[in-house]
Amino acid sequence: MVIYYGLTDKFNNKLQQLDPEFEDGKEGSRPFIYLSMIVDDINILLPLRTNAKHKHVFHVKEGRVGFIDYSKAIVIDYTSLDSMVYPFPKNIHQKSHIYIQNNLEKIRKEFQKYVKIYKDAWKTQHHNPGSKHIVDYSTLKNYHAELNIHT
Q: How is residue 55 annotated by DSSP?
């Protein structure tokens, strides 16, 4: 089952203070819609975006949603879910929704691969500019405890 969420203003503001990589939608004028999924027993929100300028995305080939961006993932504690997110009405483009629904397992596996890429980049960032770039532009740097990354 596919579930979409939006972030409450309070939670969105908290994230943006934590890390500038947590961003509003287009110039802050609209919120991102997030795909909710559980990956390796961790509750994840992945933003749906119309544009992404890197390769760590799932390309939604149907409808108006362009990408699901792995690099801007949010790890969320479902015990306080109600104060952080709200259910997003199913008004995303129907073709996009069906395409996402039909590819959930692929999205999950690709996100797992991205987490591994991030973990490897974290280890080598001090002597590898490409790794540093991955770490700098990923929101996963805020979730090392949840991802069992020891700093």
A: S
